[in-house]
């Protein structure tokens, strides 16, 4: 149990055909809520934070907290660095004890993305950590600061990328986008199916917030093993706190603290039930 490699969590999910939620957190309360849900549902969990969020939650503080919480959990928890942009930052998270890192070179030309990803794979190996990378480009942006256009993953490029880099998991773009979707997400399940047939490693779906339960299940049927959820958790916390304040101003700080934990817990629980990861540990 406790802190495990993300690769181990995804290998089991692949063998038993379910998805595992990778939940982005911003503070201790969200970490506690996510772990509470995982322990209650007996589900593996991936706890993550993206590099762009470190301006709010500095890595030297939030990182050790995530690792400590994972070590204490009585279910398998991987601690993952999401959308790492530089080798230096990735190395810092590995030093802290993260069991998994993502290098996001999706904005670079293919050759450069391959070259940089190989460097990260070499580095992560020294720590026994798992590596995720991205090919094609997921839409929107992690913190809403840009509206990046979706660039669908090409099947040939995904195959070549996986073979040449030796990454453990591959994030793909099939019409998914970070942040809330403007309309209904239009996922290209046909493309996912083709990628799944050609690429042997577990596939990752970013932009989980706003995707329907039905679409999640179809994606899992076609090889998606890790599903990233960020905005839905942040919104769940915000809505819960707003509702409480509308009903009556907080009279005690620790009621607010409990509300944050509970809202994160509810959102994580909801997604774990859809992904089929409950009672897998
Ligand atoms: P959402 O904010 O759309 O859930 O995306 C999360 C994500 O993909 C993190 O990398």
Helix count from the secondary structure assignment: 10
CATH domain class name = Alpha Beta
What about the largest sheet?
8 strands, parallel, barrel
In CATH, the architecture is Alpha-Beta Barrel
Distance between the termini: 8 Å
List the strand order in the largest sheet. Answer: 2-3-4-5-6-7-8-9
Unique ligands: 1,3-dihydroxyacetonephosphate
List SSEs in N-to-C order: EHEHEHEHEHEHEHEHEHH
Written account of the structure:
The protein is an alpha/beta fold and 281 residues long. It has one domain (6-275): Aldolase class I (TIM Barrel, Alpha-Beta Barrel). It is 49% helix and 16% strand. It has 10 helices and 9 strands. The chain has an 8-stranded parallel beta barrel, surrounded by 9 helices. Strand 3 (45-50), helix 3 and strand 4 (76-84) form a beta-alpha-beta unit. Helix 2 crosses helix 10. The chain is globular. Bound molecules: 1,3-dihydroxyacetonephosphate (13P). 1,3-dihydroxyacetonephosphate binds at residues 24, 50, 82-83, 142, 178-179, 206-209, 228-232.
Short description:
One of its GO terms (molecular function) is fructose-bisphosphate aldolase activity. The chain has 281 residues and is α/β, with parallel strands linked by helices.
């Amino acid at each position: 149990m406790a802190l495990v490699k993300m690769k181990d969590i995804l290998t089991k999910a692949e063998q038993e055909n379910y998805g595992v939620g990778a939940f982005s957190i911003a503070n201790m309360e969200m970490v506690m809520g996510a772990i509470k849900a995982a322990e209650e549902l007996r589900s593996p969990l991936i706890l993550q934070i993206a590099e762009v969020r470190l301006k709010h939650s500095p890595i030297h503080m939030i990182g050790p907290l995530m690792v400590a919480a994972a070590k204490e959990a009585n279910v398998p928890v991987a601690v993952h660095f999401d959308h790492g942009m530089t080798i230096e930052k990735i190395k810092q998270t590995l030093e802290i004890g993260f069991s998994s890192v993502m290098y996001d070179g999706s904005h670079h030309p293919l050759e450069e993305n391959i070259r940089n990803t190989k460097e990260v794979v070499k580095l992560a190996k020294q720590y026994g950590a798992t590596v995720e990378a991205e090919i094609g480009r997921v839409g929107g942006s992690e913190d809403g600061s840009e509206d990046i256009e979706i660039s669908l993953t090409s099947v040939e490029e995904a195959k070549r990328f996986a073979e040449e880099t030796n990454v453990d998991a591959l994030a793909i773009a099939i019409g998914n986008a970070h942040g809330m979707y403007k309309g209904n997400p239009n996922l290209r399940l046909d493309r996912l199916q083709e990628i799944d047939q050609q690429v042997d490693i577990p596939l990752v779906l970013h932009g989980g917030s706003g995707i329907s339960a039905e679409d999640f299940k179809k994606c899992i049927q076609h090889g998606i093993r890790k599903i990233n959820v960020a905005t839905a958790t942040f919104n769940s916390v915000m809505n819960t706190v707003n509702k409480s304040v509308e009903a009556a101003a907080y009279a005690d700080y620790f009621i607010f603290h409990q509300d944050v934990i509970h809202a994160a817990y509810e959102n994580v629980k909801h997604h774990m039930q859809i992904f089929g990861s409950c009672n897998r540990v």
